[in-house]
Amino acid sequence: MEDVLETYALPYDPNVPLICMDEKPCYFIADEQEPIPMSVNHPKLEDYSYRCVGSGSIFMFVEPLGGWRHTEALRRRTKLDWAHQIERLLLEFYPEAEKVRLVMDNLNTHNIGSLYEAFSAEKARSLAKRLEIHYTPKHGSWLNVAECELSTLSRQCLDRRIPDIETLNKQLSVWERDRNNSVKQVNWHFTTKQARGKLKHLYPNL
Q1: Is residue 180 part of a domain?
Q2: E strand or H helix at 28, and its extent?
Q3: How many domains, in total, are found in the chain?
Q4: What are 157-200's pLDDT values in tens digits?
Q5: Residue-wise DSSP of 105-161
Q6: Which CATH number do you get for residue 69?
């Protein structure tokens, strides 16, 4: 926990940006009956009945101090999926960064070995050398800014029936563009000193 809190306390450095990453499952919901479109006399009308037509996983990257985020829905969340998301993060979004500080949970797919399963040893090593990984502790996912951003995404974009991954990614793209254009930064206030006072039960008694 203190490792993550100390990482959040570091000053902004464009050469070593801080990125938080998280995932959440998503479910595709189709209408049993065609909705009645909104008109001047009534809102959009939906029948109560629906059916689940599939699932996927939403990947979220957030740069708290830079006010940037990227989100994308994929069919799965395998080691290869994570590795290709990291490749895109490093080579497309932050190609000039010397290193990326990456905060994420300790899921079994979130490790350097996934890069070696997806790419040649040379490419995997070149990507791994540009990562400085900080894992949130078990039961400490609240420390991940990306989880907070996923909560905002759920309220603003996912509170409706979305029938397929193509529609979802179109809506995610619009949401991402609006959030990035407004440069919504995250100012983390909880410090290591506060954790030692308020979360004493998490520390061993010596």
Answers
A1: yes
A2: strand 18-31
A3: 1
A4: 888 888 999 999 999 999 999 999 988 788 787 777 877 777 76
A5: ---TTSSHHHHHHHS-HHHHHHHHTTEEEEEPPTT-GGG-HHHHHHHHHHHHTSSS-
A6: 3.30.420.10
